[in-house]
C-alpha cells in the first residue's frame, strides 16, 4: 500500500503514452498530420557547431541536396569556438556554395546563443535548427514546411533515426527506445498540438517567434550561471507558454549516431535528466494553461520522474529489487514484441531484433536511481557537454577532398 501513489502515477503515464495517444492518432487519421503543399516560404537552416570535426562537412552537404527551391534555401553555420578542425571543415563544405554562410563566435557562448546569432543574420520566414552531427533526408525541409497550416503553428519537429543501430547491444537498445519515444510517446501531445519537446536534431520555427522569445532564451540561467544544456526542451516550452502551437511529424527524417559505449550512454542520460528536471519544474508554473489532458500528463510525468528513483532505492533497501526487475523485464519484453510486430515490414538493415530492448529493464532503474539525484545536484552545469572530440588546432589543414557519405535510404521508414 505504501507504493500505491507511485502505481497511480505509473498507470496514468502508461495510459497516456501507450493507449490514449496512439488511439487519438488512429481515430483522427489524416487530420492528425495534416499538410499544406501551397506554402513554400524562404527557409534558413542554422547549424550550431562545436567540436564536430569532419561530420559537419557531411551534414552541410546533406542539406545542399534538399528537395526545395535553392533560391529560397540558405544554410548558416555558427561555430562556437570549436577546439578541433570543425571550422575548417565547415569552410570547405561552403566552397562554391554562395547560399552557405559560416560564422564563428568571438567566444564560447553555448548552443542557444549561437542559434540566436544565426537567426539575426537572416530574414527568412522559417528557421530550421539542425544539429551538426546529423545527416538530413533530402525531403525533410519540405515535409517540415508543409505542416505550418496556420499562423498559430510556431514549430514543427522531425523524426530521428539511429545510423549505427547494428553496432552493438547499446545502439540496438537505443534504436528501440527512439522508436517508442518518437512513434508513440508524442502522440498525446501531438493530438492537442502542444508537443513539449522538439529535438534540435531537426526542428523548424517561425522566425518572428524566435525573435519574440530571444530575450527569454538569452537570459536563461540557474543561480546566475548561464545554462547551455536542454535548449531544445526549454525553447519548445517557451513557445507553448507564449500561446503558440507545436507539432511533430515522422515524415521529416534525419539520421544520427547513438552513443556506443556505457560511458557515452550514461553521459547522455545525465544531460537529458538535468534538462527534464529543470524544464519540467519550470513548466509547472504554466501547465494549467495546457489542455487538461496534456496538463495531467505533464504533471504525472514530472511526479514519476521524481518518485521513480525513490521506489528503486526503496526496493533495493528492502530486498525487493529482483521483484521490480522482473516487472521491468516483462514490460520491456512486451515492448520489444510490439516493436518487432510494428516494424515487420522493414528490411533487416532498418530494424533490430525485439529482444535487443531487454537490457533496458536494468539500464532504466540504474540510470534513474543514480542520475536523477546526481542531476539535481549539478543543475547549474554550464557546459555544452555534447562533444568529446580531442582538442586540436583550429588551423589543422583539411585532408584532400573527402567523399560525401550518402545518407541512409529513407525508403520503407514508417511515417
TrEMBL record:
Localization annotation: Cell membrane
Name of the protein: Glycosyltransferase
Keywords, alphabetical: Cell membrane, Glycosyltransferase, Membrane, Transferase, Transmembrane, Transmembrane helix
Region annotation (Disordered) ranges: 388-415
Spans through the membrane: 6-24, 290-312, 324-342, 354-377
CDD domains: CESA_like (cd06423)
Main location: membrane
Pfam families in the cross-refs: Glyco_tranf_2_3
Amino acid at each position: 500500500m505504501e507504493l500505491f501513489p507511485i502505481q497511480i502515477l505509473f498507470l496514468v503515464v502508461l495510459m497516456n503514452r501507450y493507449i490514449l495517444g496512439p488511439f487519438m492518432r488512429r481515430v483522427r487519421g489524416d487530420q492528425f498530420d495534416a499538410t499544406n503543399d501551397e506554402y513554400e516560404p524562404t527557409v534558413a537552416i542554422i547549424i550550431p557547431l562545436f567540436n564536430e570535426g569532419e561530420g559537419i562537412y557531411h551534414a552541410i552537404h546533406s542539406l545542399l541536396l534538399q528537395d526545395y527551391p535553392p533560391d529560397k534555401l540558405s544554410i548558416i553555420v555558427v561555430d562556437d569556438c570549436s577546439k578541433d578542425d570543425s571550422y575548417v571543415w565547415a569552410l570547405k563544405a561552403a566552397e562554391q556554395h554562395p547560399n552557405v554562410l559560416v560564422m564563428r563566435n568571438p567566444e564560447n557562448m553555448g548552443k542557444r546563443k549561437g542559434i540566436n546569432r544565426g537567426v539575426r543574420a537572416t530574414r527568412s520566414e522559417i528557421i530550421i535548427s539542425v544539429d551538426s552531427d546529423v545527416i538530413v533526408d533530402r525531403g525533410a525541409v519540405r515535409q517540415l514546411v508543409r505542416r505550418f497550416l496556420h499562423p498559430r503553428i510556431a514549430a514543427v519537429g522531425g523524426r530521428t533515426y539511429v545510423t549505427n543501430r547494428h553496432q552493438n547491444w547499446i545502439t540496438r537498445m537505443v534504436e528501440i527506445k527512439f522508436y517508442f519515444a518518437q512513434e508513440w510517446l508524442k502522440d498525446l501531445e501531438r493530438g492537442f498540438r502542444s508537443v513539449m519537446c522538439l529535438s534540435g536534431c531537426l526542428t523548424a520555427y517561425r522566425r518572428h517567434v524566435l525573435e519574440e522569445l530571444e530575450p527569454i532564451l538569452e537570459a536563461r540561467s540557474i543561480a546566475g550561471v548561464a545554462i547551455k544544456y536542454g535548449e531544445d526542451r526549454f525553447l519548445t516550452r517557451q513557445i507553448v507558454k507564449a500561446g503558440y502551437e507545436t507539432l511533430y511529424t515522422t515524415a521529416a527524417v534525419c539520421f544520427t549516431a547513438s552513443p556506443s559505449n556505457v560511458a557515452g550512454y550514461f553521459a547522455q542520460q545525465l544531460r537529458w535528466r538535468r534538462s527534464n528536471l529543470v524544464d519540467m519544474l519550470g513548466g509547472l508554473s504554466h501547465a494549467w494553461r495546457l489542455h487538461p489532458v496534456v496538463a495531467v500528463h505533464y504533471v504525472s510525468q514530472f511526479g514519476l520522474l521524481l518518485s521513480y528513483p525513490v521506489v528503486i532505492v526503496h526496493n533495493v533497501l528492502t530486498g525487493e529489487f529482483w521483484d521490480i526487475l522482473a516487472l521491468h523485464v516483462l514490460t520491456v519484453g512486451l515492448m520489444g514484441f510490439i516493436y518487432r510486430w510494428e516494424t515487420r515490414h522493414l528490411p533487416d538493415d532498418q530494424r533490430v531484433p525485439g529482444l535487443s530492448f531487454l537490457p533496458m529493464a536494468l539500464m532504466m532503474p540504474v540510470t534513474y536511481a543514480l542520475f536523477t539525484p546526481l542531476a539535481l545536484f549539478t543543475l547549474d552545469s554550464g557546459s555544452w557537454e555534447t562533444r568529446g572530440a580531442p582538442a586540436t588546432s583550429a588551423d589543422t589543414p583539411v585532408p584532400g577532398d573527402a567523399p560525401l557519405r550518402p545518407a541512409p535510404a529513407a525508403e520503407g521508414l514508417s511515417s
